[in-house]
Every structure is written in structure tokens, then in C-alpha cells.
Design a protein that fits this description.
It is built from 7 helices and 3 strands; from the N terminus they run αβααββαααα. It is mainly α and 163 residues long. The termini are far apart.
């Protein structure tokens, strides 16, 4: 059985899929009432499952009549490097790799390799060193992908395109 958080996430994804402009506005209190939960659970779902690493920008207005605006966005190029930060959890790295796959920056094989490289089993280091090393690796991966995309834009052939 799915958790309430999973059901709320699924519902919000459905609303985004139905939206013509990939933007939805919802009221926390209405969602909480609809799913028979407290508004803090809505906050939890939004703050953990609708992050920039996962491809969403969230705006929030608190208070009576407050709302949450969730927008699905494309891969933000260099700005993703700033959001990786100094440390990165395994969950955040996997979310970023899933997003890179969804945005077709990498294929399934590359995602599998990268997941193995940044896994806690491979990086058998103590925290916070493990998360710091993982962040460096992910910055390197994203930086290399950005460079490859820029070279393709300016006409430098890549090996995968027969160059």
C-alpha cells in the first residue's frame, strides 16, 4: 500500500501532466483536507519531491489564502552546478541522474554507471566526506555533459555522432 505522501505526490504529478503550461497552483489547506492530513505533510511532499534537482521550481505564499505554485522546468544548464553544492546525498544524486535521463542528457546505461559510482557502497567513506566526494563527482559529470552539449551546439562533432 502506498503512503499518503506517495498518493499526494502522484496527485500533484497528475495535475502537472494535465496542465497546458506545466504550472499548477494549489492551496495547502485544501490539499490537506482532500487527503485527510495536516498541512505540514503537504509541505513535506512538496519540499522533498518537487525540488530543482527533480525538475521543479516551487513558489510559496503563506498565510490565509496562501498557495503553492509548482512549475515543471527543463534542465537549467549551468545553474544545476550551483545547486549541487558542497555535499550531495545519495538520494539527491539519484534524483539528479533520473532527471538527466528524463531530459535525455544521458541514457539508461550511463545512469546505471553513475549510480554505481556515487553509491554509498562504492564511496565507503565516513560522512560528511562521502557526500562531499559525491558532490564533486556529480559536478564533474554535469560539467562534462554541459561541455559536450555546448560543443554539439557550436558544431564540434562528438564521437557518438560519428565525429
Amino acid at each position: 500500500m502506498r503512503s499518503t505522501a506517495d498518493i499526494i505526490e502522484h496527485y500533484l504529478h497528475h495535475l502537472l501532466d494535465e496542465s497546458t503550461d506545466c504550472v499548477i497552483e494549489v492551496q495547502r489547506s485544501c490539499l490537506a483536507e482532500q487527503f485527510a492530513c495536516v498541512p505540514s505533510q503537504i509541505n513535506y511532499v512538496i519540499s522533498t519531491r518537487f525540488t530543482l534537482m527533480r525538475g521543479y521550481v516551487v513558489e510559496s505564499k503563506r498565510g490565509s489564502g496562501g498557495y503553492v505554485r509548482i512549475q515543471r522546468v527543463g534542465m537549467p544548464d549551468e545553474s544545476v552546478l550551483a545547486h549541487i553544492g558542497v555535499r550531495m546525498s545519495q538520494a539527491d544524486s539519484e534524483a539528479l541522474l533520473d532527471r538527466l535521463l528524463t531530459e535525455r542528457w544521458i541514457d539508461e546505461a550511463m545512469r546505471t554507471v553513475c549510480r554505481a559510482i556515487v553509491s554509498r557502497d562504492t564511496l565507503s567513506l565516513p560522512l560528511p566526506v562521502r557526500d562531499e566526494v559525491r558532490a564533486r563527482i556529480m559536478r564533474g559529470v554535469v560539467g562534462a555533459l554541459l561541455l559536450a552539449r555546448q560543443q554539439e551546439v557550436v558544431g564540434v562533432p562528438s564521437k557518438r555522432n560519428g565525429g
